[in-house]
Structure formats: structure tokens, C-alpha cells
């Protein structure tokens, strides 16, 4: 998912540090905290971000994919141009596997399935996105119910984006009738207010190491 939050909004950066999950000479895998941009925003006050923090320690780190400001979880950061190019091609070929964990309102009607709904920018409500069969880009998300809490009427779900559209997971779950807790962009206010953060975390990622050709797999449990 990419950063596509309002360019004019001030997004205060969390003081929570990122965590290094894996490190070698050519790449890092880090766990990004929620409420931190992956790259600098256009607003002058949105310069504190994951890549700038990482570059203080690893000056050659570069961004090959992003997580939204509100989303926490695993991010691959190449340290060389060759590795950047290779992993970028893996993302383009959709061979990088990743899944997220989210907490949503309500009980899912089906325990698993695929959401196949085209997504387009909502020109009337930027920076939001919407389901739009006419102008939207093809978008698919696999989902699986992990657990349901009848007391709170909330479901914990595993989400696997087949495509990587902006805000895809939030928009797709909303289209199913299950807004994410803490989602101040899309959820009704009562649901957004149920959590101080967006309940969405990039928990798992799998890719091939560009130099060793080894399959690399990483898990970072959701902090909620």
C-alpha cells in the first residue's frame, strides 16, 4: 500500500522507534510503527519519516514499497541499487507474498473469500479512494476470518492483497460492510473512535534474496 494521505494535512510522527527485523550488507527488513510516513510528505512539517530515520544509521537505504502512515508492519529497505532493482521487479511480478492482520467491525458472513472490486481515486473527496467499476483499476484482496469476538462484535481477519492499490484493504473491507477500527478516513466515527490507531498491521512478508537466491520469510506479530 502506498502513502496517499492528504498532502496538506499535518501528520504528527510517532516517537515510537522502528525495529530492525533483519539486516545484511545489501538489505534491511524493518518493522514500521503506526503513525509514521514511509517517505517524506509534501507538507514541510511531514519530513520525519521511516526512511529518514533509517538513513541516519544506513545512509544508502532506499524505499521499494510503502505502508500508509496509519499502518504498522514489515518494510523491505534495499541498501544497493542492484537489490533495489531486483526487489522492485519481484513486486512488479507479484511474487512477493505478504499478508496483513486487521480488526474490523461486525462478523464476516463467509470465513474466507476474495474481494474483486475495482478501485479509483474519489475526485470529490481526495485523498480518499472508492469502488468504481467504470474508472477503477482491477483490485483483488484475499481474506480469512481468524476469530470473532461476540462481546465486542469485532472480527480479526487476515488480508492478502493480490494487487497493491492505495488504501485497498480499507476500501475493500468497507465494501464488505466491515470498517476497520481506528480508521479515521473511511470508518463511521463511532467505529473510528474504538481504537487510538488504525487496526491494520503488515505481519508477514516473503521474497527471494537478490544475491543468495534464498527464500526470505519474516513475521512480526501485530501489536494489537
TrEMBL record:
InterPro entries linked to this entry: PsdUridine_synth_cat_dom_sf (IPR020103), PsdUridine_synth_RluC/D (IPR006225), PsdUridine_synth_RsuA/RluA (IPR006145), RluA_PseudoU_synthase (IPR050188)
The EC number(s) this enzyme carries: 5.4.99.-
Catalytic site: 68
Biological process per Gene Ontology, one example term: tRNA processing
Pseudouridine synthase RsuA/RluA-like domain segment(s): 27-174
Domain of life: Bacteria
UniProt keyword annotations, A-Z: Isomerase, tRNA processing
Catalytic activity: a uridine in RNA = a pseudouridine in RNA
GO molecular function terms noted in the UniProt entry: catalytic activity, acting on RNA; pseudouridine synthase activity; RNA binding
Family from the record: Belongs to the pseudouridine synthase RluA family.
NCBIfam families: rluA_subfam
Function according to Swiss-Prot or TrEMBL: Responsible for synthesis of pseudouridine from uracil.
Name of the protein described by the UniProt record: Pseudouridine synthase
The species this protein was found in: Rheinheimera pacifica
